[in-house]
From TrEMBL:
Family matches, as Gene3D superfamilies: alpha/beta hydrolase (3.40.50.1820)
A Pfam family this chain is assigned to: Abhydrolase_1
Protein name: Pimeloyl-ACP methyl ester carboxylesterase
Organism classification: Bacteria, Bacillati, Actinomycetota, Actinomycetes, Pseudonocardiales
Domain AB hydrolase-1, residue spans: 3-227
Length: 243
């Protein structure tokens, strides 16, 4: 039987925001499971700092009854995917890590701290910070003024209440010691125009995973918006190849 598929979303995101265009495609051959992390979607906000192990356990629990599964991680979700592979050996058939990191660099850390600062203020100002960081310049150039205004408004209205805890977790993640021990087929996907998690940062993640394959999307840090079909094809082709 084709292994199931788990989806791990990014910080300040939700399953719907980060993956909804891909789910119909990915569901054609395998069962897809996902869960919103604390403070996202309808999941209650955490009462303390988030732990990577807890997020991993929540996602595996959402796939109750599945003996084996692949895991697709996006941004912070890449670390969750890696943690699942390390803590549930033998059950993970493959990893697909998109716009991820082993550990954020100093430039990204500055962006994370600005993100956290803006979370305490005006949501419109936060959106004006997040959109240029997340959406690639080629995509922004193709948007009309009305489309850009609408997207800014959407982002301002849909900031998950648990974003602060999720961004804090991003700052604490360091998988540089664990990644070389991974023993699972892995595809790492960089996002070519990303200003949130740069392609170089994602490339460093790929270099630490033994035998990892590398691919790139012509998008910024919002592949579900900018290049959903191409992203879905990369995932499907890889999973079919290692399946």
């Amino acid at each position: 039987m084709t292994p199931a598929l788990l989806l791990a979303h990014g910080a300040g995101g939700t399953v719907r925001a980060n993956f909804s265009p891909l789910i119909p495609m990915l569901s054609r051959k395998r069962r897809v499971h996902a869960v919103d992390f604390p403070g996202s979607g309808t999941t209650p906000r955490a009462t303390g700092p988030l732990r990577l192990d807890d997020l991993a356990d929540r996602l595996v629990a959402a796939a109750d009854g599945e003996e084996r599964f692949a895991v697709v991680g996006f941004s912070m979700g890449c670390a969750v995917a890696v943690d699942i592979a390390l803590r549930y050996p033998g059950r993970v058939s493959a990893l697909v890590l998109t716009a991820g990191f082993a550990r954020i660099d100093d430039e990204t850390r500055v962006r994370m701290r600005e993100w956290r600062r803006l979370l305490a203020g005006d949501r419109a100002e936060l959106a004006r910070f997040l959109v240029p960081a997340a959406v690639g310049e080629p995509t922004r150039r193709r948007m009309t003024a009305e489309q850009l205004d609408g997207f800014l408004e959407l982002v301002a209205l849909t900031v998950p209440p648990g974003s602060a805890e999720q961004v804090d977790l991003v700052e604490r993640i360091d998988l540089t010691g664990e990644l070389p021990t991974l023993d699972v087929p892995t595809l790492v996907i960089g996002t070519k125009h990303d200003r949130m998690i740069t392609p170089a940062t994602t490339r460093r993640l790929a270099d630490l995973v033994p035998g990892a394959r590398w691919a790139e999307l012509d998008s910024g840090h919002a592949p579900a918006v900018e290049a959903p079909a191409a992203w879905g094809r990369l995932i499907e082709d890889f999973l079919d190849d290692v399946g």
